[in-house]
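Marked as duplicate of an earlier ticket. Keeping the data here for the record.
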Amino acid sequence: MIIRPHQHWFSRLFVWHGSVLSKIASRLFLNLLLSVAVIFMLPWYETLGIRLSVAPFSILGVAIAISLGFRNNACYARFNEARHLWGALLISNRSLTRGLKTVLTDRPRQIRQMIDFQIIWANALRLILRQQPIDSALAPLPEPLRQQMAGYQNPCNGVLMLMGQWLAEQHRCGALSDILYTQFERHLTELAGIQAGCERIANTPLPFAYSLILHRTVYTFCVLLPFALVNDLLYMTPLISVFVSYTFIALDALAEELEAPFGMEDNDLALTAMCTNLEIDLREMDEDDNKPVKLRPNNHYQLR
């Protein structure tokens, strides 16, 4: 995720890091070369008796813009839902820790174990959503539990099971009443729902055919556009063609980033920073000085 301070509108025109321009620069350069080549081929092109006008491209451009708008809205809805899910994750974990610290005042060691489970679960979910190895997230577990979690298809479910068993143990020994046990169990149910919601977003992308149609249409439009502009604009063709292509190709590239909000792209969610903030909050609530350092954006304003 890009975290930038407020900038003057003129300075923002030249921003590089955080824009999709770095991803599509090569494609725009190819469009520029094509536009220049079309200018030199104009005499030969006119001998073919084929003349493309701007009129059909104006109509097609409006249709593409509307379609891209719908697709970007659908992709942003996925990004926004993912953001809300991780916000709910933070709320549930903080509420669970606060309730346990308030009720189980004579069991600090057991509460610290539960906090460890919560942090492990959040980091494991982050790594699974990003399709990265989860060994580092499970490392704080004792060796027997770590081997047990390695046998799960989804280790997050295993850690949730450990958290449920921990609550059941406190209930069996009389530390939690039936009402309190039910209340704390509800937080685990919320975490399971959040996990399922994140997995649904990560594992069910937008229909491929829909994205493919738009992708093909955008690039066909950008390739043919210089041929329609060259008769009227001549030497201005490269400038106008690249500018129009930038608009459409950039929207297409941005939709691809927003469609998968748990990745490592510049406009994806900063899951690592969220997990770090969660651990800091839970450690502070437990009066534990062994807490990580808060993550800050790097020199390119990137926060992972």
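See parent ticket for discussion. Residues 54-103 form the longest helix (50 residues).
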